Structures are given as C-alpha cells and as structure tokens.
UniProtKB/TrEMBL annotation:
CDD domains: AdoMet_MTases
Pfam families assigned to the protein according to its UniProt record, in alphabetical order: Methyltransf_11 (PF08241)
Membrane spanning stretches: none
Organism whose genome encodes this protein: Natrinema salsiterrestre
Name of protein: Class I SAM-dependent methyltransferase
Gene3D superfamilies: Vaccinia Virus protein VP39 (3.40.50.150)
The entry's keywords: Methyltransferase, S-adenosyl-L-methionine, Transferase
KW Methyltransferase (keyword) present: yes
Keyword tRNA processing: no
PANTHER family assigned: METHYLTRANSFERASE, RHODANESE DOMAIN-CONTAINING PROTEIN
One GO term of the biological process aspect: methylation
Residue ranges of domain Methyltransferase type in the record: 42-144
Length: 196
C-alpha cells in the first residue's frame, strides 16, 4: 500500500476469526451493498479473510495487494471462483475509469492514506491513492472503509500515531471527491461509507 505493509511472516493472524469483532461479515456486506453482477475490489486483501466473505455475493472480486507473498498465502488456502488477484498499490490501480461498483478496505486505510507530514512524497502518494479510488469507482459506486481509530486504546492494531480520526479520514475522502453517506466512530475502529 505504499507506506508500510503487514508483515507476511505474521499473515496467519489475518485468518483469526476474532477480527470479526471489529468488522463482521454482515456489517461489511450491509455497508457495501453488493449485487450478483457487482464488480468490487478488496483493497489490501492480504490472505483473503474478507474476500472470502464478499466473493459469493458478487460477479467479480479483485483481491488487491502490493505483496505477491500475500497472494501466495491466499492461494494456499483456496480461492473462490469470483476472485482475481491484482498486485498493485492503491495509487496505481490497473482498472479503467468507472470500472468498479464498489471497493472496501478493512484495517488498511492507514497504510495507503498516510499523510506523511514530514515527507512530501508520502503526502503525494496519499493524494494519489484516494484520487485513484475515486477514478476507478463508477458514479454511485461505494467505498467502504473500516480502519483502526486514532481515538482507540491502541491495544490492538498499529500505533495510534499511524491511525486517523474519523474527522480526518472523512475529510480525506471528501477531498478526493467522494460523498460521505455514513461515518461512525466506534470504540476501536471507524466505519465510513462513501460514494462517488
């Protein structure tokens, strides 16, 4: 995702069902609102934990990850027919304009949307990633973002200084030209639905 990535040697933790306490399958599907003919992307798909949940409800699901080793781990456990692997960063997605009906990221927004306050290249990367998401979503397409909250305890997930508050994350998405449909601050996470 550009700034840092989840360590492949800890990939087994991505399969922990305890992750559902931060975002359940049902919650993700309710926010994404997929249909049988939807084309969606899992941004930072890792080992496919959430891709496996969404794939049965869509026509095509692009598992996007910058690490080929994560794709390899996903292949090892078995991949639903609807899933296609894409190795790319969020700032350079290989999709046509308006190609996706939806996209979602679970606990990865902080990885590709880092503001990099002391590094102008990071800020450019962030702007590029969010603008790229707006580009590939069709008009009316949905972007679901569930990520660690800067206002959380910090007991799980990345350090607090790497996270965004709900206000900062929604501002980033609005600045990229997306409309906020819903934005919720929870005890440890934020959940945002944005549309183009």
């Amino acid at each position: 995702m550009g700034f840092h990535t989840y360590p492949v040697d800890r990939a087994d933790a991505l399969e922990d069902p305890g992750r559902y306490r931060y975002c359940s399958r049902e919650e993700l599907l309710a926010m994404l609102e997929p249909t049988a003919d939807s084309i969606v992307a899992d941004l930072g798909s890792g080992t496919g934990f959430y891709a496996d949940d969404v794939a049965p409800f869509v026509d095509a699901l692009y598992a996007v990850d910058v690490q080929t080793a994560m794709h390899d781990r996903y292949r090892e456990k078995g991949v639903p027919d609807a899933v296609e692997f894409v190795t790319a960063g969020i700032s350079s997605l290989p999709f046509d304009d308006d190609q996706l009906d939806g996209a979602y990221s679970t606990m990865t927004h902080h990885e590709y949307a880092s503001t990099g306050t002391d590094d102008t290249d990071s800020e450019t990367e962030s702007d590029g990633a969010l603008a790229e998401l707006a580009r590939v979503l069709r008009p009316g397409g949905r972007l679901v973002t569930v990520d660690w909250s800067a206002d959380g305890s910090g007991d799980a997930g990345p350090p607090l200084e790497e996270r965004f508050s709900l206000a900062d994350a929604t501002s980033q998405l609005e600045d990229a030209g997306l409309d906020i449909e819903s934005a919720v601050d929870r005890p440890e996470t934020i959940a945002i639905v944005a549309t183009r």
